[in-house]
Amino acid sequence: MAQATRSDAFINAHIEGLQDEIDAALRLAEARVAAEMRSKSIRGLSVAIVFGGRTVWSAGFGLADPPRKTAADTNTVYRIASISKLITATAVMQLRD
What we know:
Elements: E1 3-6, H1 8-14, H2 19-40, E2 44-51, E3 54-65, E4 70-71, H3 83-96
Antiparallel strand pairs: 1-3, 2-3, 3-4
């Protein structure tokens, strides 16, 4: 089960009248994340949605440390290893262009 946090005050100040749609979209996102985790055997991950430069929703799914049964949350630090090279190279190329 996801441990979610959200900034309702920020959302309400910027997107009045859309709370039902936002809630439905967040439920869909949580269901999609859970389905992807099952289909790809992902043990744990954290997700954040950013709007206007602010985190408006974040959640941890699954386990951060399966042997210890520690739940993933919004503050879980993950080891991304060699993928950071790809991210850095992409950022450099975007700056160059």
